Amino acid sequence: MAPLRVLCIHGYRQNATSFREKTGALRKLLKKHVELVYVSAPLSVQQANTEEVADKQNDSAPESGGEEDPRGWWFSDIKARSFNAQQQCEESLGLDESVTAVREAVKDQGPFDGILGFSQGAAFVAMLCSLQEQKLEPVFGFRFAIIVAGFHSACTQHQKFYNSPIQVPSLHVFGLEDRVIPDKMSRELLPSFQDPQVLIHPGGHFVPAASAHRQTYQDFLKRFQ
């Protein structure tokens, strides 16, 4: 059986290189079943601001040089060009560019069986699935989504993505000790999906890949092989 090809969407202040390093344990866990392909967001993020919620914290891997080029999928504060998952905003900046970047990645590196996102990237994956469902992005053909530390965007402009439950089969992964995206925020995204599957782990803000989680990932992925 050929491995499932999955497009990976990193978190805020990460990029394709750093997210690849941070998900090494997941690649190892699923190596026979899945090929993970990484794409960087088009928006460059300024130096860290104490106000911002960043996705740098990762309990399972050390920080590395990949963070030298921090990237984001949209900014919730248009003037400051910054992002905070809990910031209420009327409109965001950069989302259209990011959708274009994913469309180009699918054209150039696809097709993909599924899509995986982490934190801001996970919230973005929900939006991409909504666009696919509304037939607004014909090149997308994701058969499943894995949403790690996802959340329902607090931006008014994004509410159109949540109008009806997304039919794309989804696995939602979140940690009870996550201080960046508290599990309450991840749970609030669940009603936006039809029959979401859930993997809850005891840890913080990272992509869990312990042997205890293998079965849940594999059982979910088995449906698409």
UniProtKB/TrEMBL annotation:
Keyword Protein biosynthesis tagged: no
GO molecular function, one term: carboxylesterase activity
Keywords recorded for this protein, A-Z: Hydrolase, Serine esterase
Presence of the UniProt keyword Hydrolase in the record: yes
An annotated GO BP: response to retinoic acid
UniProt-listed Enzyme Commission number(s): 3.1.1.1
Reaction equation(s) it catalyzes: a carboxylic ester + H2O = an alcohol + a carboxylate + H(+)
Span list, region Disordered: 49-71
Gene3D superfamilies assigned: alpha/beta hydrolase (3.40.50.1820)
All residue ranges annotated as the Serine hydrolase domain in the record: 3-216
Pfam families listed in its UniProt record: FSH1 (PF03959)
Any single GO CC term annotated in Swiss-Prot or TrEMBL for this entry: cytoplasm
Residue ranges of the TM segments: none
InterPro entries attached to this UniProt entry: AB_hydrolase_fold (IPR029058), FSH-like_dom (IPR005645), LovG (IPR050593)
The protein's enzyme class: hydrolase
Function: Exhibits ester hydrolase activity with a strong preference for long-chain alkyl ester substrates and high selectivity against a variety of short, branched, and substituted esters. Is able to hydrolyze ester bonds within a wide range of p-nitrophenyl derivatives (C2-C14) in vitro, with a strong preference toward substrates of >8 carbons.
Assigned protein family: Belongs to the LovG family.
The protein's name in its UniProt record: Esterase OVCA2
Species this chain originates from: Neolamprologus brichardi
Lineage: Eukaryota, Metazoa, Chordata, Craniata, Vertebrata
